[in-house]
Amino acid sequence: MFAGQPFAVFQPFVDTATGLIAGVEALARLRDADGQLHSAGALFADPDSDQADLLRLDRQVREHALDQLRHAPADWFLSLNISPRWISCLSPGQALPSLCQLERHRIDPRRIVFEITELDGDIPCLLQAVRQYRQAGARIAVDDFGAGYSQLDRVLALQPDILKLDMRLFQDAARGGPGCELVKALAQMAEKTGCRIIAEGVETEDELHFALECGARYVQGFLFAAGKPGFFAADAFAARFAEVRDHYVQIKLAERARLIELRRQLGELLEHLRPWAEQRGPAAALPAPGHPWLLRIYQCDRSGEQITPNCEWRGDAWHEEPVYLRHNWSWRPWFHQLLAEGLDEQRLTLSPTYRDATSNQYCLTAGRCIDQGRRLLLVDIDAGALASPPPPATPAGLAGHCRKPQAGAFATAEDSPWTGTPCLPANVWANPCRAPRSSAAAPSTRTTTASSSPAPSAASGARPRCTRSPATTTSTPA
């Protein structure tokens, strides 16, 4: 037996649509003789723990959680963790203990979310249990989605209602780690399949911003509250959430304004380049660029075939790089958009951010039709060189982080559309989570390896971070 009194504490889920608490997760705790609380999670993670004792402990915690639910608002849901390994131990045709408990406590199953904590058990048994849960009216969530054992094929087979992003993966991604693009892709996949996203481990404002960026419907973490024995008021965090959400919106509005300014500058640049491009002038005829973000200039025909060398600025002069002549870029998404514009030579097309597979730079491509729509004038842009200093912590200081204009090689700075760098944050133009490591120009294959999305600033780390082991939640035997 385990020392201490088992009971449940409840950590809230905040609904990003309202800022109100929408539900709670039951977490297992033990109270020692001195009244101190200890997580029971380590016991569930310990392979040496007696399974019969764990089963009794879990049922006591779950009974306590279900008993306490009557004190929560009627529209809240309760999330209970379920281990497929224990489901596999049930006899064929045996009623699911969790559903029996709900019936005994007279709890509407529609208020319950069963979190599947791992996917390495007997999948046929798990699918059968999931069908019974759904028939009763309960919802299904997959916990730690994105972790090593969250096999995609099994997730698709379960067709969960909710996906709970793996906490460590989420936090690393929010800080600009290598999992950032994966988290964004997982979130997009969930949205397309009709799943709601829970971001757990939200401990800083930057992590909340990233959760919103991922489209999370619910957020959970120490930024709001740890687990506690009772329940918070439904609006306990509404003001705090509104403050952070409004800051996020202001950041996005500022980014949008910078995008508009970038498009204006690109329009002027392409218009100035038009006579040179239509005459197929040499690179030597180009002035030095005033924009540090300009990587290269080139042209394609309407079939997508590159018909001019890349004109690349390499520090002190333009160079012609012919290696990509006759390469075809019609497979790129922005190319179709350009073709759709047809003969409208005043319209500018700007691609999403992508990562160049050769240089590993984050880039954008801008283009406009010329020569009565027969050719496309294109420029590649270094997304990292567009980055401005990160915004301050308060909305009041969001504006004004623009770089001073830089004079180009025209007769006067006023004559040149090549001068000035728009105030553009790294979280718009680069990797969803970080600016490129290098902004040095390099020959490009213009091969997309990542799609666009904003990158949050580095996490502030103002709060001590919580590392939740697999043990902080109780995994119930069905």
The total tally of domains equals: 2
Through-space gap between termini: 21 Å
Tell me the strand order in the biggest sheet.
Answer: 1-2-4-5-6-7-8-9
Helix content: 25-40%
Main sheet properties: 8 strands, mixed, barrel
How much of the residues is beta strand, in percent?
15-25%
The CATH topology annotation of the largest domain reads as: TIM Barrel
Number of strands: 19
Low-pLDDT segments: 389-474
| SS field, number of helical segments | 12
CATH class bucket of the largest domain: Alpha Beta
What is the level-2 CATH architecture name of the largest domain? Alpha-Beta Barrel
| Mean pLDDT value | 79
Assembly of the depicted chains: single chain
CATH homologous superfamily designation of the largest domain: EAL domain
Helix-strand category: alpha/beta
Describe the structure.
The chain is of the alpha/beta class. The protein folds into 2 domains: 5-223 and 464-476, EAL domain (TIM Barrel, Alpha-Beta Barrel); 262-429, Beta-Lactamase (2-Layer Sandwich), CATH 3.30.450. Helix content is 29%, strand content 21%. The chain has 12 helices and 19 strands. It has helices at 41-45, 51-68, 84-87, 97-104, 123-136, 152-158, 167-174, 180-192, 205-213, 238-278, 333-341, 426-429; strands at 5-15, 21-31, 37-39, 77-82, 112-116, 139-145, 162-165, 196-200, 218-220, 294-301, 310-313, 318-321, 349-350, 354-355, 362-370, 375-382, 387-388, 424-425, 475-476. Strands 1-2-4-5-6-7-8-9 form an 8-stranded mixed barrel, surrounded by 4 helices. Strand 14 (354-355) and strand 15 form a beta hairpin. Helix 7 crosses helix 8 and helix 7 packs across helix 9 (205-213). The radius of gyration is 28 Å and the shape is elongated.
